[in-house]
Design brief:
Elements: H1 2-17, E1 22-28, E2 34-40, E3 45-48, E4 54-57, E5 67-71, E6 78-82, E7 88-92, E8 109-113, E9 119-123, E10 128-134, E11 136-137, E12 145-155, E13 168-178, E14 184-188, H2 192-199
Antiparallel strand pairs: 1-2, 2-3, 4-5, 5-6, 6-7, 7-8, 8-9, 9-10, 11-12, 12-13, 13-14
Length: 206
């Protein structure tokens, strides 16, 4: 009897902690306030979010194990990934300087950033699979991603103001690439173009 109760308790805990697929339903009110609801695959509302915390959703109408929001936060701004229980999983890398452009899943991996803006990767379940550690990293293509070391931003033309919509390229002293476990396969005095050609890397086309 004791064994049976232990087994039932274990199953209940497992069910409670199971990951839930969900999507975001956005509704605009008369006062232009957006209400975000997390809805499961049975069209049941899991949670209604506090609109004071979030300002935009980037997942559209797709079901997933996490969703990416722009978050209003005095301690840290940026793109945050949350699960169905509104737990913060990680912060998402912004792919373009000067404009809002959060990363998205490519080959079931999404780029994430830590407090020091080092880049790592999480999978489609929202699990961190490569801890943030790279100064710069591309998305994966055929199981490889290009990384850079000792990098700097090179502006496109003359920037009028620091707060303006400015665009940059990234130039690194050292370039190389990693595999799907985050192992550095090659890194040295190579150009991005050399590594790109060597591993036949191509950017994702949405």
């Amino acid at each position: 009897m004791k064994l049976l109760l232990t087994t039932i308790l274990f199953l209940l805990i497992s069910i409670a902690n199971a990951q839930i697929k969900f999507k975001v339903i956005e509704k605009e009110t008369n006062d232009w306030k957006n209400i975000y609801s997390l809805v499961d695959e049975y069209n049941q509302t899991i949670k209604v979010l506090d609109s004071a915390k979030y300002y935009i959703s980037w997942n559209g109408d797709e079901y997933g194990y996490f969703t990416v929001f722009g978050k209003k936060d005095n301690t840290r701004s940026g793109w945050v990934a949350i699960d169905a229980n509104e737990n913060t999983l990680f912060y998402v890398y912004n792919t373009s300087f000067g404009e809002p452009s959060p990363d998205y899943l490519i080959e079931n991996k999404i780029r994430i950033v830590n407090d020091e803006n080092k880049i790592g990767f999480a999978n489609e379940k929202g699990h961190i699979i490569i801890e943030p550690q790279f100064e710069i990293a591309t998305s994966f293509h055929n199981g490889k991603a290009i990384i850079g070391q000792k990098c700097e931003k090179v502006p496109w033309g003359n920037h009028e103001t620091e707060d303006g919509c400015n665009h940059y390229s990234i130039v690194c002293e050292n370039d190389g690439y990693i595999n799907e476990t985050g192992e550095i396969i090659k890194l040295g005095n190579y150009t991005f173009e050399q590594i790109m050609e060597e591993i036949n890397w191509k950017p994702d086309e949405e």
